[in-house]
Design brief:
This protein is 33% helix and 22% strand. Strands 3-2-4-1-10-9-11-14 form an eight-stranded antiparallel sheet, with helices on one face. A six-stranded antiparallel sheet has the order 5-6-7-8-12-13. The longest helix has 22 residues. The radius of gyration is 25 Å and the shape is globular. The N and C termini lie close together (11 Å). Bound molecules: 2-deoxy-2-amino glucitol-6-phosphate.
Length: 596
């Protein structure tokens, strides 16, 4: 949700580096984009629309300066106009600021600054920051002290980067919004996320809340609120820059769907003992949960629903809460563990729920894809899903990896009947997913139903979260109405929506009672003339009642959920593609939602 970047030390390449970095951060927001370079003066170019629009605007401009900052916006305060695009300037035009987050006391600050004679050009909360810096400079403070004084006035969440004319230093600070530094031999970067500068360096420093960074061609320094130097570890990222490219696919989402076999292998590597067939996640510390509360949003919430079922299957009480509703959840009991499932590790609702859980005395664990993320740093334990960077705004491979990781969590912390069988099924996931990717008829199913009025998804047990996820994916990238239901719930109301124009995707795996009951629900929709698309492993006779079949290999029901989801991802992808949607950057959405 908004991406910021900064670069110093690249001399006349600064602008290119910034625009390249913004293109890598565009998944965080794509309402507008802008850059500022600081030399003798501060030059700004900003534009509503995507990075391409900024590139076009830059063609007729010459920007000079050694230190640069940039921003790609997901609007929170004010519409996506040129005026509301970052960077924002003070009255003199000597201070430029980019910001990700929300300044909660901005109205109060804005009123105060306006009374003191400052004029504002945008509707944003961010614009107070350059004016606060301007005020501090007018009081005779040097640039760093002025930025520090401005930051000290802010309440809320921010990752902020500031440049001042005549100074080739970037000043930056964070509170509750991600900010990472990139360290090269003679150039330094900062960004909301590593892909922004991964093409230039693999050495990174994750800033913590309350830390302040200065970057200049001479080096970097991190300090605390009082200005005391902080010793920071320089970490090395373990993924290649190519992982953030499309590798020949039309869209990141399609590439990421196809990366699922590898993502699952990475998730399992070193955690499943090849000889004993046991799961070892002891590196996470002593988890031994007596009860678990999951908190999460969106796709991660669906993964959490699945994870809670796994634990309940193993006899551990487990509940799932939408993170934004956690305030109303019952307090965790005894030594309960509260698990935040969050791909980005930066989702404000999830972070807030985890903080609330800590206040209530619970231990916390993050199930996340992002090393160094706020969730990973703040929780007592972090289980990394190791999916690799996911750029498409719609989560695909990270959902599969979350399901795999949650299996590891339940297998590694509980005694489960049939554990060997589940482990075998997890090991088979990469090849089974590959078989689906090689043979799927999802594109022809998409072609058949691309003009349908709405889409429904049903499933039971482990397949219920898959039905919810199938519907979310369809909504996100096709902009068409889609709903997921527990199969048994359909007859309690939603059946009234079912017509010959509303295909129902039914996830039916295995041949047990769950399958039998879901087939009963399939017959109910069939009797109302709705087309039925069965996602099935062929163990039941659901095909008899289906107009179309999407096959998945036969496996354990827990692993079948991952496989069925791949088919549904592909259907949504191809429907969206046929409708010409902006698949990787759906309207109104952002990859990482850092506001509550
Ligand atoms: C998934 O396709 C969505 N973009 C969204 O629902 C996402 O899963 C949600 O915002 C949570 O994100 P997180 O996993 O980074 O916390």
């Amino acid at each position: 949700m908004c991406g910021i970047i900064g670069c110093v030390g690249r001399e006349d390449e600064t602008l290119d580096v910034l625009v390249h970095g913004l293109s890598k951060l565009e998944y965080r927001g794509y309402d507008s984009a802008g850059v500022a370079l600081s030399g003798e003066r501060v030059d700004v170019c900003k534009k509503s629309g995507k990075i391409e629009d900024l590139r076009a605007a830059l063609e007729s401009r010459t920007l000079g300066g050694a230190a640069g900052i940039g921003h790609t916006r997901w609007s929170t305060h004010g519409p996506p106009t040129d005026e509301n695009a970052h960077p924002h300037l003070d009255c003199s035009g000597d201070v430029a600021v980019v910001h990700n987050g929300i300044i909660e006391n901005y109205q109060e600050l804005r009123d105060e600054l306006a009374t003191a004679g400052h004029t504002f050009k945008s509707d944003t909360d961010t614009e107070v920051v350059p004016h606060l810096v301007e005020d501090a400079l007018a009081d005779g403070l040097d640039n760093e002290a002025a930025v520090r004084r401005a930051i000290a006035r802010l309440e809320g969440s921010y990752a902020v980067a500031v440049v001042v004319s005549g100074d080739d230093t970037i000043y930056a600070a964070r509170n509750d919004s991600p900010l990472v530094l990139g360290i090269d031999d003679d150039a330094y970067y900062l960004a909301s996320d590593v892909p922004a500068f991964r093409d230039f360096t693999d050495r990174v420093i994750y800033l913590a809340d309350g830390e302040f960074a200065t970057l200049s061609a001479d080096g970097w320094r991190v300090s605390d609120v009082d200005g005391n130097e902080v010793d920071k570890d320089v970490d090395t990222v373990d993924w290649d820059p190519e992982e953030t490219g499309k590798s020949g696919y039309d869209h990141f989402m399609l590439k990421e769907i196809h990366e699922q076999p590898r993502a699952i292998r990475q998730c399992l590597r070193g955690r499943v003992d090849e000889l004993s067939g046991e799961v070892d996640i002891s590196d996470l510390g002593d988890l031994s949960p007596t009860g678990v509360q999951f908190v999460a949003c969106g796709t991660s919430y669906h993964a959490a629903l699945y994870g809670a079922q796994l634990l309940r299957d193993a006899g551990i009480p487990a509940q799932t809460f939408l993170a934004s509703e956690y305030a109303t959840a019952p307090p965790p009991i005894g030594d309960a563990l509260v698990v935040g499932v969050t791909q980005s590790g930066e989702t404000a609702d999830t972070l807030s729920a985890l903080r609330e859980a800590r206040k209530r005395g619970a231990r916390t664990m993050a199930v996340t894809n992002t090393v160094g993320s706020t969730a990973a740093r703040e929780c007592d334990h972090a289980l990394y899903i190791r999916a690799g960077p996911e750029i498409g705004v719609a989560a695909s491979k990270t959902f599969a990896s979350q399901l795999a990781a949650l299996n590891l969590f339940s297998l590694g912390t509980t005694r489960i009947d049939g554990a060997r069988e589940i482990i075998g099924a997890l090991r088979d996931l990469p090849s089974n997913i590959q078989a689906i990717l090689d043979d799927s008829n999802a594109e022809s199913v998409a072609e058949t139903y691309v003009d349908s009025g709405a889409y429904f998804f049903i499933g039971r047990g482990h397949q219920y979260p898959v039905a919810l996820e199938g519907a979310l994916k369809m909504k996100e990238i096709t902009y068409k109405h889609a709903e997921g239901f527990a199969a048994g719930e359909l007859k309690h109301g939603p059946l009234a929506l079912v017509t010959e124009d509303t295909p129902v995707f039914a996830v039916v795996t295995g041949d047990g009672e769950m399958a039998r009951k879901t087939i009963g629900n399939v017959k109910e929709v069939e009797a109302r003339d709705a087309p039925v698309v069965a996602v099935t492993d062929g163990q039941s006779d659901v095909e008899r009642y289906a107009d179309e079949v999407l096959e998945v290999p036969e496996t354990h029901p827990q692993a079948a959920a991952v496989l069925a989801n791949v088919q549904l991802q592909l259907v949504s992808y191809y429907v969206a593609d046929k409708l010409g949607r902006s698949i990787d950057k759906p309207r109104n959405l952002a990859k990482s939602v850092t506001v509550e």
